[in-house]
Amino acid sequence: MAATVSTPRTTASGQELRPSPRRPVWMGRPSAGIQAGKALLIAVIVVIMLYPFLYVIAMSFASREAAAAGGFFPNEFSLEAYRSVLGGNVVTRALLVSIGITLVGTALSMLFTTTLAYGLMRTREVPGAKFVLVAVLCTMLFGAGIIPNYLLIRSLGLLDTYWALILPGLISAFNMVVVRNFFMGLPNELLESARIDGASDWRIFTGIILPLSKAVLAVVGLFYAVGYWNAFFNALIYLNDTSKWPIQVVLNQYVVQGSALTSVQAPDIPPPPPATVQMAIIVLATIPILIVYPFLQRYFTKGVLTGAIKG
Amino acid sequence: MAVIETSDRAGAGPSGRADPEPAPEYRLRTRASVWTRMKRERWTYAFIVPGVLFFAVFAYIPLLGNVVAFQDFSPYWGIFNSEWVGFDNFVAMMSDPQFMRALRNTLTISFLQIAFAFPAPILLAILLNSLISDRIKRMVQSIVYLPHFISWVIVISIWQQVLGGAGPVADLFSQIGVDGVNIMSNPDTFKILVTSQVIWKDIGWGTIIFFAAISGIPSELYEAAAADGAGPMRRIWHVTLPGMVPVITLLLILTIGSVLTVGFEQLLLQQPAVGSAAAEVLDTFVYYRGIQGGDWGLATAAGLFKGVIGTILVVAANKFAKRLGTGGLF
């Protein structure tokens, strides 16, 4: 295919387009009916995936009248719902808690995941490393169950502390394998020569390995960050103190279970309709993911596939 | 843990030498070299130890906590002082109608997911792969991956806004004269709803691994099939699908291993809206009975039952896959 002779296609401005993969010679051109069917199918899939997001975002900005009128898209916009949500301290505090847990948790997870991956790189040279690796991989096959985990957190005295949201998921075996596989793909000569030059393990790790692994660190960092941001169940069972709740538990409380949101409102202003308030909370809980997503998604495939290969 | 284990072996070195029958020389040499290697790599252990501690405390110690299943456990007495009751909890569990209902619901939802949610990404991957334009392919991919990163709480919230009693879909129904449609709280269709939610959330993410499998198929195979007169559908059937079989088997093993685990958060979140008759599964049973209800022994027994069966199923499915010659997971 690479040998196909063709003049590069250009846009109106004369700019060269990236060569797109051409239809191989043996593949016939599909009939117009099939092409239209495929296009329609893909359009339907895209709409089903995107419409719920767009609807919620649009409704969160809807004015009182537009929200009451309903319909597939409101046509009058207002920031009332956001003012109300961010004015009361419940949601604002929950957002801050979630941000804090995500930042601290992700940083610690990355530190311990990468160091463990480095330590388990040379299973042949380091006695016991192979055993540890297998023990870690086994945790992907079975877990202890809800009650034993709860009893552990309880007996460690972590109930009602933020550590209960961070420590139990500090290292994920899957992410560790992804990182380790990436490290092992780095040129071994580089590490060997550094070792011969007398560089310490810490030096090799921070000076050579980490800088060369930015791509995989970005993916795994995203996986951890999303995990901490989305933490719901652990927060639900380990935190009885409602003032410590992260955003997902608050979202469950006020949107899924439909409790009334107690927000500080000036008495003469009627509160915005509950539906738009709920939508605003959903949007606020989703925004961080929507922001980081486009930057990192080009690395996904690589991360998932290295992780899928057997350790 | 590993460190202790290997240092034990190293410590056995000198006593091995004192044996009346001397071990073969090569054994002695390996034993001595383990100790030397450990000394040489002592700084590497600094990298391993925190991870070992983490997995020991948060993955392996809780496994021991499952002994609660054989106790009349009370948090007041703790694991060490609670009364041992043998298999009483398991007997009680088996005769508990709520447990049986949870088991039935779990199996039904699992079956629906294997039948519909499992093949969905395979079909989507084949469809997207048939697109010639790289740009459209990539655009669609980034859209369908997105819901994977959204938490279940957000997914359920969003669905409730769209499909719930006050959403646009209910609006649409009332315009054609059907009032009071609330897809989110109908116990009769709940299991279908659960399956659709899983498909919506993870269909895109699931395609990644199938794409990799498809791109590993040599294009000569397609060329040869086309030369033999196979049309697009036949090429998918005779070339693409067989090329994906190893990956499909692999994932099916994992799916079978988790038949007793169905979206815990997903069901826990929706149980208040549809009632426990439709939405109680094993995990929510354990949560409500144990952590909410304080029936620790019985709940742990149910959790252990789930875990043990799951592990047996994975191992068995893996063996079966190896026998079929498609290569197992481990």
From TrEMBL, chain A:
Major localization listed first in the record, in broad terms: membrane
GO biological process assignments: transmembrane transport
Chain residue ranges for the region called Disordered: 1-23
Domain of life: Bacteria
Record's subcellular location: Cell membrane
Transmembrane segments: 39-62, 94-119, 131-150, 162-183, 204-226, 277-296
GO cellular component: plasma membrane
CDD domains with a match to the protein in the record: TM_PBP2 (cd06261)
Similarity field: Belongs to the binding-protein-dependent transport system permease family.
Name recorded for this polypeptide: Binding-protein-dependent transport systems inner membrane component
Native species: Beutenbergia cavernae (strain ATCC BAA-8 / DSM 12333 / CCUG 43141 / JCM 11478 / NBRC 16432 / NCIMB 13614 / HKI 0122)
Taxonomic path: Bacteria, Bacillati, Actinomycetota, Actinomycetes, Micrococcales
Automatic annotation (TrEMBL), chain B:
Cellular compartments per GO CC: plasma membrane
Superkingdom, taxonomy of origin: Bacteria
Pfam families reported for this sequence: BPD_transp_1 (PF00528)
Gene3D superfamilies membership: MetI-like
Record SUPFAM superfamilies: MetI-like
Transmembrane segments: 43-63, 109-131, 143-162, 203-222, 243-264, 296-317
Gene Ontology terms: biological process: transmembrane transport
PROSITE patterns, per the entry: ABC_TM1
Entry annotated with the keyword Transport: yes
UniProt entry keywords in alphabetical sequence: Cell membrane, Membrane, Transmembrane, Transmembrane helix, Transport
Subcellular location: Cell membrane
InterPro entries found in the cross-reference section: MetI-like, MetI-like_sf, UgpAE/MalFG_permease
Protein's UniProt keywords contain Transmembrane helix: yes
Family: Belongs to the binding-protein-dependent transport system permease family.
Protein name: Binding-protein-dependent transport systems inner membrane component
Organism expressing this protein natively: Beutenbergia cavernae (strain ATCC BAA-8 / DSM 12333 / CCUG 43141 / JCM 11478 / NBRC 16432 / NCIMB 13614 / HKI 0122)
